[in-house]
């Protein structure tokens, strides 16, 4: 079975500082992908970043980077230079080759960026 | 084609009524997924289609729920005899057949059962 765990229900960060959102996962699938999505109060799910299980380097997309530690089964999201517009729910998600490519999600972390 | 479209955006219904939601995918996406999201939680998988075939249903999908995707294009999710516990956001997501791509989400249908 696949499982995503996000242990931080809420996080605060000062504007312009960096923040790390934690994510651990469990899977028996040898090949999988890890994703982070942002969900602002308007409700849409916005894709942020993707990491493949066989990728040698950590993924980066602008201010977002994914700290992938395969042996620890962790895929933490780092947001640099936080902005007020980063305040939202953040979901870690995983998809494997087994089970129909369905994406499973963690419970989320609500990020509050303080001015 | 600008993205995944869901209709309606909001639905308020009385307990016991039937409701139907529609999802129009990105045209070249052969995989379509339905999720349910309750307040403060992550989306929970309900069911998925590859083209017109429904390949998996979650145990969350009771016999009051049914989903279809005729001709592998749009999909509908019907809830019969709605209960207050069905109140949630229902999200549709689609993707092409590649593993290493994100799922594209619609804006969801928010259901309130009163």
Notes on the protein architecture:
The complex is a heterodimer of chains A (115) and B (114). With 115 residues, chain A is mainly β. Chain A is built from no helices and 12 strands. Chain A has strands spanning 3-5, 10-14, 19-21, 24-26, 32-39, 46-52, 60-61, 64-69, 74-79, 88-96, 103-105, 109-114. In chain A, the strands form 3 sheets. In chain A, strands 2, 5, 6, 10, 11 and 12 form a 6-stranded mixed β-sheet that branches. Chain A is globular and about 45 Å long. Chain A starts with a strand and ends with a strand. In chain A, 38% of the residues are buried. Chain B has 114 residues and is mostly beta strands. Helices cover 0% and strands 49% of the residues of chain B. Chain B has no helices and 11 strands. Chain B has strands spanning 5-7, 10-13, 19-24, 31-37, 44-50, 53-57, 65-68, 75-79, 88-95, 104-105, 109-113. In chain B, strands 2, 4, 5, 6, 9, 10 and 11 form a 7-stranded mixed β-sheet that branches. In chain B, strands 1-3-8-7 form a 4-stranded antiparallel β-sheet, with no helix packed on it. In chain B, 35% of the residues are buried. Chains A and B meet through strand 5, strand 6, strand 10 and strand 11 of A and strand 5, strand 9 and strand 10 of B.
Q: Note the beta-strand portion of chain A.
A: over 45%
Secondary-structure element pattern of chain B, one letter each: EEEEEEEEEEE
Largest interface, with Cβ-Cβ < 8 Å? A-B, 25 and 27 residues
- The number of helical segments of chain B is 0
Distance between the termini of chain B: 35 Å
**Could you state the oligomeric state of the chains shown?**
heterodimer
User: What is the overall shape of chain A?
Assistant: globular
CA-based shape of chain B: globular
Question: Which residues of chain A form runs of ≥5 with pLDDT under 50?
Answer: none
Structural class computed from helices and strand pairing of chain A: mainly beta
| Percentage of β-strand residues of chain B | over 45%
Residue-averaged pLDDT of chain B, rounded? 93
């Amino acid at each position: 079975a696949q499982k995503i765990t996000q242990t931080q229900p809420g996080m605060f960060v000062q504007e312009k500082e960096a923040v790390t959102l934690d994510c651990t996962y469990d899977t028996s699938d040898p090949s999988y992908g890890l994703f982070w999505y942002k969900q602002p109060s308007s409700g849409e799910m916005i894709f942020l970043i993707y990491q493949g299980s066989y990728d040698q380097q950590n993924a980066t997309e602008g201010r977002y980077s994914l700290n992938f530690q395969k042996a620890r089964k962790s895929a933490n999201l780092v947001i640099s230079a936080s902005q007020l517009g980063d305040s939202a729910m953040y979901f870690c998600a995983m998809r494997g080759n087994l089970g129909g490519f369905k994406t499973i999600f963690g419970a989320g972390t609500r990020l509050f960026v303080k001015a | 084609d600008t993205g995944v479209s869901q209709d309606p955006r909001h639905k308020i219904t009385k307990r016991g009524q039937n409701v139907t939601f529609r999802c129009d995918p990105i045209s070249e996406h052969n995989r379509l997924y339905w999720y349910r999201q309750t307040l403060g939680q992550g989306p929970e998988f309900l069911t998925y289609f590859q083209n017109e075939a429904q390949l998996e249903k979650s145990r969350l999908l009771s016999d009051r729920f049914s989903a279809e995707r005729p001709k592998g294009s749009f999909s509908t999710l019907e809830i019969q005899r709605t209960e207050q516990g069905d109140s949630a956001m229902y999200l549709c997501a689609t993707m092409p057949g590649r593993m290493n791509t994100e799922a594209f989400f619609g804006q969801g249908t928010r259901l309130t059962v009163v």
